[in-house]
Amino acid sequence: MNTRIIVGAQWGDEGKGKVVDLLSEKADIVARYQGGANAGHTIVFQGKKFVLHLIPSGILHPHCQCIIGNGVVIDPVALMEEIQMLEQLGISIEGRLFISHKAHLIMPYHKILDTAREHQAAGNSIGTTGRGIGPSYIDKFSRVGIRIVDLLDRKTLEEKLRANLEEKNTVLRKIYGKEELNIEKIVQEYLAFDTQIDPYITDTTALLNQAIRDGKSVLMEGAQGALLDVDHGTYPYVTSSNPTSGGACTGLGVPPTSIGTIMGVVKAYSTRVGNGPFPTELINSDGEFLRKEGAEFGATTGRPRRCGWLDLVALRYSVMINGISEIALTKIDVLNNFEEIKVCTEYHLDGKVLKYFPADSSQLETLTPHYVTLKGWNTSLAGITNYDNLPEYTKKYIQFIEEFTETKVSIVSLSPSREDTIIR
User: Fold this and answer.
1) CATH number, domain 264-423, options 3.90.170.10, 3.40.50.720, 3.40.50.11290, 3.30.70.260
2) How far is 105 from 75, CA to CA, in rounded Å?
3) What is the per-residue DSSP string for 363-407?
4) Which class is domain 104-197?
5) Would you kindly state where each structural domain of the chain is located, as residue ranges?
6) Fold exhibited by the domain 3-100+204-263
7) Contacting residues for 400 by C-beta, under 8 A, at least 6 apart
8) What is the DSSP letter of 350?
9) Which residues are catalytic?
10) Structure confidence by residue, pLDDT tens digits, 191-209
11) Cα dist. 148→107, 122, 155, 157 in Å?
């Protein structure tokens, strides 16, 4: 079966964009199944840097069709900016980008509510990007969300907007002290947006299932990482959807029986953006070095990422809940200058040894990680194209990860560039 799900196996920012871009070379379709425009996939191709937020990174390959599925929440402004950016770079979009008519829209009030709630939460904030993604998912599950299909009927759109704004304006005014929004202005803006994206709207569920039946090669990608999954992540410090592999089926409308393999993208160390537990975080010179050497700043927000050693307990948990059968290991070059490298193999809490990833975030915040120290290779990996030519201690580091997770590392990324990749 020629279908593969690509999941971020940690807290996001693992380098999924590069991996998907690389694998898109032999794919017919790349489909995004959840999240919103807060996720920035950075790709370096032919010396140029691309940051994609909604459109799958397969768009850089002329033969590849790209799908934004029903599980994605779409910010019209971000989408149009991205389309225009790609067109200005000479990348054709029309006839290659398909957007689900069942996808929900991020409305102006979602962004205002997102930011207002974070400010009010103060010390207890989740650390969202303020892009309106969480509030949009709230409306989706409250069954008052506005979908792309609603743009086809002005009367329906106005009715839904008026009902929503009656509630939202009251909340904005009375709870957050914000100005009320103008419904007529919003209606006009979104009707204009409908005209712009009309060429891309289709029944992506039917398109995708037919492609699978026809034996086409399909990559399915999520945003963020498994440990930010609303059900399986470090709740409540999570995203509002399911980045785990199961989210691909609901977010695209394909059956589980259509899934072939699942690849987990894993950074050679750990990072996290925003608030929440992070057992192996390094608040010292090693952490600063990882951040600087790895350019660990958010592609969307520019926020500095928290950095730490690789957490193999968390990774083994991620392998389990996603059904990961192979690993793409990224940013291993960031570890080039360490004499010693640590990896977390178990947790210690209240005199007990935990070999599993706890569901309670408060435990994750108070436990102590137990490390195994491995010898570093302390040399550059630049120019290496064959796995056998990697330094011996680099291969031992990779082997340690494979043995602990019982999962093969099939891709090793040596830099952000597409060319600096070893496929085993």
Assistant:
1) 3.90.170.10
2) 6
3) HHHH-EEEEEEEE---S--TT--SGGGS-HHHHHHHHHHHHHHT-
4) mainly alpha
5) 3-100+204-263, 104-197, 264-423
6) Adenylosuccinate Synthetase; Chain A, domain 1 (3.40.440)
7) 343, 372, 374
8) T
9) 13, 41
10) 888 888 889 999 999 999 9
11) 11, 34, 14, 10
Residue whose structure tokens are 């809490």: 349
* pLDDT one-digit tens code per residue, 53-71: 899 888 989 999 999 999 9
Instruction: Compute the distance between CA of residue 128 and CA of residue 125 in angstroms, rounded to an integer.
Output: 8
For 357-406, how does the pLDDT look when each residue is reduced to its tens digit (9 = 90+)? 999 999 999 999 999 999 999 999 999 999 999 999 999 999 999 999 99
Amino acid in the structure at residue 417 = S
**One-character DSSP codes across 190-219:** HHHHHHHHGGGEE-HHHHHHHHHHTT--EE
Q: What is the pTM of this model?
A: 0.91
Distance CA(271)–CA(282), nearest Å, equals 10
Kindly list the distances between the CA atom of residue 310 and the CA atoms of 112, 164, 255, in Å, as whole numbers in the listed order.
Answer: 36, 44, 33
Going from the C-alpha of 205 to that of each of 31, 193, 213, 376, the distances in angstroms are 11, 22, 12, 47
**How much is the CA Rg of the chain, to the nearest whole Å?**
22
Whether the CB-CB separation of 290 and 282 falls below 8 Å is answered with: yes
